[in-house]
Design goal:
Largest sheet: 4 strands, antiparallel
Structural class: alpha+beta
Oligomer: single chain
Number of strands: 8
Number of domains: 3
Helix content: 40-55%
Strand content: 5-15%
Mean pLDDT: 83
Number of helices: 12
Strand order of the largest sheet: 2-1-3-7
Distance between the termini: 76 Å
């Protein structure tokens, strides 16, 4: 009865046309799920959702790694009978979206869980997670359906001390960390780039965002599939295009600019500490003046600029007049 319920639930969660394959080093195919479930390797997660966390353990005793690591009983384990290598899977009770349409916080949380589990299991950190040993294929794999209960993220997290992969070169980022990294690269570029591209229209803007996402993905040693890159780019492009003029976006951008202005002023002050006071102050005000001009062009009023940059309002007015833009 347990296996019948698992099969029905598993089949329902599959994408209509998942990737599949006849085996390692063979072509990756796209087939209807009624056909795909008959193949040894299968895409178990829909294109933009994480329903299952799957770990690839290349060791003769891989089946017992979860037990030795004191981790919860997996949803299923599919083992290669020849070498003992396994795919160990945990089903999520609430699927997590991998694109910018979702809040990024749950994805970061899941990426941290994934990384922490992979290290504790001794799993392959470079495993892309796209194709998995098909748990419905008991001819090619030794399959054990162990736990019919799906997991909340908090429960999975309670078994490990969460850690994020140390900040390092992009080509060393794997798993869901790639989605987070690409999303950050694209959105931060888009936040700054949108103003100079409004006159070119949305189609041109979307094409540029896709190009930036494609380049960011190309830096990973194991790139994401194009459908994920395209989905992230589309979400970022739409959101930034639609919200660049909103009060929330303006406040965020202004805060970032003000922070940079203060940081620049602090650096200028530090460099000028051993010089004559007049030179240090000149360098400091030069950086702040540039930030004031940027904020003014963005539509921030003089009072708000003065408050953010900690400068007298009359000084802001004078700077703008000198620049002949007030």
């Amino acid at each position: 009865m347990k296996n019948i319920q698992f099969t029905e639930n598993f089949y329902k969660n599959l994408a209509p046309k998942p990737y599949c394959s006849y085996g390692k080093s063979t072509a990756m195919l796209i087939r209807s799920k009624s056909t795909a479930v008959k193949l040894p390797l299968l895409q178990v997660n829909p294109p933009h959702l994480v329903t299952y966390l799957v770990f690839d353990i290349d060791a003769p005793d891989a089946y017992l790694h979860y037990f030795d690591a004191d981790l919860p009983l997996p949803t299923w384990i599919a083992k290669n009978r020849k070498n003992g290598h396994c795919h160990i899977c945990y089903e999520l009770k609430t699927p997590i979206c991998k694109t910018a349409n979702a809040r990024l916080k749950p994805l970061r949380y899941l990426a941290s869980i994934e990384y922490s589990y992979a290290k504790k299991l001794g799993a392959d950190l470079r495993y892309s997670g796209l194709l998995t040993k098909n748990p419905l294929d008991k001819e090619n794999w030794e399959v054990a359906i162990l736990n019919p209960r799906a997991f909340e993220l908090e429960e999975l997290a309670s078994y490990v001390t969460l850690e994020n992969k140390p900040k390092t070169a992009k080509n060393e980022i794997f798993g869901l960390g790639r989605n987070c990294s690409m999303f950050d690269s694209v959105r931060f570029w888009a936040y700054k780039a949108i103003r100079e591209r409004l006159d070119h229209g949305y189609d041109s803007w979307y094409a540029e965002v896709i190009n930036v996402a494609h380049n960011a993905n190309g830096e990973f040693l194991e790139p994401l599939v194009y459908s994920e890159v395209k989905a992230t780019a589309k979400s970022v492009a739409k959101w930034v295009w639609r919200n660049h003029h909103s009060a929330e976006f303006q406040a965020w951008f202004s805060e970032k600019q003000a922070h940079r202005g203060k940081k620049g002023a602090a650096k200028a002050n530090a460099k000028g500490a051993n010089r004559k006071g007049g030179k240090a102050r000149s360098a400091q005000y030069s950086d702040i003046r540039q930030e004031a001009l940027k904020l003014h062009v963005m539509g921030v009023n003089n009072t708000q600029i003065a408050e953010q940059l900690k400068v007298n309002r009359k000084t802001i007015t004078r700077w703008l007049k000198q620049a002949k833009i007030n």
